[in-house]
Amino acid sequence: MTGTGICTGRVAALTGAGRGLGRAHALALAAQGAQVVVNDLGVAPDGAGSSAGPAQQVADEIRARGGRAVAHTGDITTTDGAASLVATALDAFGRLDTLVNNAGFLRDRMLVNLDEDDWDAVIRVHLKGHFLPLRHAAAHWRAEAKAGRRPDARIINTSSGAGLLGSVGQGNYSAAKAGILGLTLVAAAELARYGVQVNALAPAARTRMTERTFAGTMAAPAEGEFDAMAPENVSPLVVWLASADSAGVTGRVFEAEAGRITVMEGWRPGPTADRKSRWTPAEAGEAARELLAAAGTPQPVYGTR
């Protein structure tokens, strides 16, 4: 991992980097020259427990390959944990250039069976777990910009197809991942003045979460065939977004899986009717049906296909 790469000289902090997509991103960034802070709380797939092992193992793996990495096992859904993630990068490497928000877990239930604790836990780890590291990294970069040291910084958030289209049995997860998209757009607009670019990724890959929920789709291929669901397929786009080469790209959402990259275009105005005065309910309904007839058909929610 020594030598040159498109992230040489840059420091990246990644949350949820002990396994799955986060681990693949950490290894790929290090292979391209980045110095890496590997954050992972080491929880079970439903968020239970904790262990320092996964973060330390990935950091050790990077160092064994000639790279530079440190482990961080703080809880990034807390103010202290998120602040210490940024502090760890500064203490270990003297700077922070890229934040990759990736940590998460699942507690899937149909809405009528979803209890408040499972809602709160998933919203906390995905949405609050994006906001707090983003907020503390952004505060650091704002201070740098105000001191005359304008950053060339990157934030890469992790959404999901569930956030884009919804997913049956994953109301809490879909809501959190949709919220991350809104957070990305606001952060891109607010932080541009400080030299920070913010983008989001909706990946599809084999992880502990997806293997359980989409076992058939995520099954490994026969030996010798292209492994379309390998998490390593997503990481090259993350590395590029983390690098200086992605200059000018911000406020964007990408889908990435297998060998495919898609720029998502989000909500745009469709057919519109404007009568320049108030509608009656009947008139509003008639207009709405005419507009729907002229509109495109929405993509189906995952789990209804």
Set down the secondary structure blueprint.
Layout: E1 11-14, H1 20-31, E2 35-39, H2 53-64, E3 69-72, H3 79-93, E4 98-100, H4 116-146, E5 153-158, H5 161-165, H6 171-191, E6 196-203, H7 208-213, H8 235-242, E7 253-257, E8 260-264, H9 281-294
Parallel strand pairs: 1-2, 1-4, 2-3, 4-5, 5-6, 6-7
Antiparallel strand pairs: 7-8
Helix pairs in contact: 1-8, 3-4, 4-6
List keywords for this structure.
single chain, 305 residues, alpha/beta, Rossmann fold, 8-stranded mixed sheet, 9 helices, 8 strands, 13% strand
Structure description:
The protein has 305 residues and is an alpha/beta fold. The chain has one domain (11-264): 3-Layer(aba) Sandwich (Rossmann fold), CATH 3.40.50. 41% of the residues lie in helices and 13% in strands. The chain has 9 helices and 8 strands. Strands 3-2-1-4-5-6-7-8 form an 8-stranded mixed beta sheet, sandwiched between helices. Helix 4 (116-146) runs parallel beside helix 6. The mean pLDDT is 92.
